[in-house]
Amino acid sequence: MSSSAGDRGLTMHWAFDEGTGASTMESVTKTVNDVHYVFNNAEFTTPCTPPWRQGVAGSSLLFDGYSTYIAHSAHEEERNGEPEFLPALSIGAWVAPRTYEWGHEGKLAAIVNRHNKDAKQGYLLGMFRHGSWSFQIGLEGGEWIEIWSPDGYELPKNEWSYVNAVFNGDKGKLKLYLNGSEIASAAAPAGSRLAQAADTDLLIGRNNHSSKLAEVFSLHMFSGLMDELKIYSRALSSEEVAASYQAVLALHGGVRPQVEYDDIRLDRTPLLADRHRPQYHVSPPAHWMNEPHAPIYFDGQYHLFYQHNPQGPYFHHIHWGHWVSEDLVHWRDLPIALAPEKDQLAPDGIWSGSATYDADGLPVLFFTAGNDSASPNQSVALARSTYSEDKDPDLVRWIKHPEPLIVQQQGMGAFGDFRDPFVWKDEDGWYALVGSGTEGGAGAALAFTSKDMLNWTYKGSFFEADIQKFPYLGPIWELPVFLPLGSDKQGVSKHLLLVSPVGAGADVEVFYWIGQLDKHSLSFLPDQEEPQLMDVGDFHFTGPSGMVDPVTGRNIVFTIAQGDRTSVLEYQSGWAHNGGLPVSVYLREDGRLGIEPIQELRSLRGEKRLSLHDKSLIEANEQLKAIQGDMLEIQLEMERGSAAQLGIKVRCTPDGEEETLLYYDWKESMLLADRTKTSQHSEEKCSGIQGGKLELCGENLKLHLYLDRSMVEAYANGLKSLTTRVYPGRKDALGLELWGDGEALVKSMDIWEMKSIW
Length: 758
What we know:
Distance between the termini: 37 Å
Low-confidence stretches: none
Shape: globular
Number of strands: 55
Strand content: over 45%
Structural class: mainly beta
Mean pLDDT: 96
Helix content: under 10%
Number of helices: 6
């Protein structure tokens, strides 16, 4: 949309009509500005330029929320002879926010700014919490003035809005306009002048004084689409603002232009070539995730949600992301299911929870509502699907119950730690476990019951740790999961309790007990006091959630596969963490817990690369020389012979400089991963030896391995898993080699290439 004769006093104009590339022109001075974007010079994926999308007039620029911004040098204005004090200023822009920032330290996510609030200089137009927005200026004489959007005039997500901010110093007025109409006015001293922020660059999409998180991430970045940004050195009239708005509407048949969801959503395409990002593990399209949770089956589809920061690959302002699948393997990205809103329920975060069914069999979500103005700042809340109205099988829309359902009281666990409800239903009603601790400093799961799903009764501690005997169980438990295992050989009904300890001294892994449910007192009686680990790979297998699959009757557990990287690498990569493979858990004949990857994963098998039987290590390794890959499934059975240690090296370079060894030690009865040679990259953290106890009881070593770029998962004899992360520095770290400290027999080995689920 070109400048016209009516643009008197126009000093800067970014039309964003390039539609491609990593630069944009300010058309008044013909200055070409670089568009800063993390993948302009990518290390781990194919470099690409920022995404351009359909705009209100021509194209628009999509800002990713954490790396995209434009810097227009202050020296450009100095060359144009810009005065130190301005009698007037007007800014107009079309914006379609994708997310809202939390508003750390009260700062705005800048649309455009050239300001220094401490010096009370310059101007800032930007967004705040829950879509509110503001225009702020510094005046000659050292006064800072702010004008804010009133309630009801927030900028909606995923929709185009036309925002205008006007300063008229002679009349002493500041005004805000939304979609061509005035929505707010504020007074300034008559005859006042805006004090320019000398030696400060004009930034589009990034705050001049953004706060830093983890010394890497700049907060207060704009996330979404932007088009037709104009700055004037005069005060536009209400008629001029309205006419500018109508001019764009005229291009779209007299209605406000619409945003296509595919144009604004997070796009996983740039990450598909990332040599470390798993491709058959479930993950967000981009940015941050932690626990996948609240699995539920409805109307022929599985739904799985996850803790998500859509603003960037860092932990902040958590939402509920959403996937859907027909087979628990191939997942589709859906819009965010739950987001913090301008209410008194959960304005500060939507934390983990679970899913169950209401009395009509419709899915409901129980979540931890974050409200920092309340004490405690965590409560249990509910959201209902709109399926009964819209019959949408993807369950895209959810409506929150306006009040929290369970609020922690003094004497109810460790006050202030109260989160991650796990809810289930039977013929007698609904039951909930909530993660907390005891006043004595031990982790605990608290129990509640309800007859109607809305009114809950506290039943006391469901189960708690003996912190003296097991200090690694920590002072607080998160993410309790409770699943039925059926009856043992004696006909006794057994259940599985999973917890994830946190806090001082806690070992942050997934611990479990097998035991019995006392339904009368709503408490758990473990068969053995000592907890067991599901996975021995340290902290890479955490954040459990679970469900009883109504299709097959299986118990399925989901986890987060945490990364092992610095914030710098997560910034450069554009993503952090992914889900682990879904696992089936069951009660074995010997009374132990069986743990196996779900059968549906076989659908990802591509070409079978190898099948061998009864070979020595030397013979097998000769055949393995032809096999390379970082997306493989491997099934391996080895008879120890004279070896005390036996296993397989994966992600090996031809010269052996980089490799990761997975092996079993019969003397120590340990399943181990040796990462001392995993990566030579100077910034990668993966190193050392991880592992834990595994009793094979005379069986051969049977490993079922999944390699998926940085993911390595080993399932051993159906009893334990070992999940770890590997980030080789070299691109040729793709080899395999069997290893042992003595003679051994490879009973069988099968290798398949694996396909991406995306």
